Amino acid sequence: MTQTQEDSQTACPVARSVEIVGDKWTILVLRELYMGATRFEEIQIQTEANPQMLASRLKALEADGMVERRAYNQRPLRYEYHLTKKGQAFYPVIYALRAWGETWCKQKGEGLAVRFVHRACGHDVGTASFCKHCGVPVDRKDLDAAVSKRFSAERAVRADAFTSARRGANVAAPRRN
Fold first, then answer.
1. Which regions form coiled coils (predicted)?
2. What is the Cα–Cα distance from 83 to 100, expressed in whole angstroms?
């Protein structure tokens, strides 16, 4: 994920970008950061990445300057992950992936997974990157997001499964004498 000497010598910005964000796990980690998750466990639950996979993606994103770690607890030492300016600048790519997925990867009749409403006028922007009502371009900071009932339920199932699995792992096996 971090740029290699060979890849960084290419003039192609697509090749350079893919070196940083070109896998499923990295994209899902970024999705969660944009949705407001900051803690390792929150990100792990919704991406369903194993701890090693997630740790490697977060370290690579940090090394590439897209994410910064901030300690939120000293004992034990725990970190939150926050998007840097570079990480925030990637949002239009995620938004475009969302729009493409909503258009081309769903069955007819499925609603939007996340609805975005333009804060300035209160109108839904659909999958556009501009407000059709106002005619102005919109950034993430200009939008209020509402997760659909279906997507919210899906996310809750993942959180419940994670909690149940963790609880099961913490139950000690019965002792044999």
1. none
2. 23
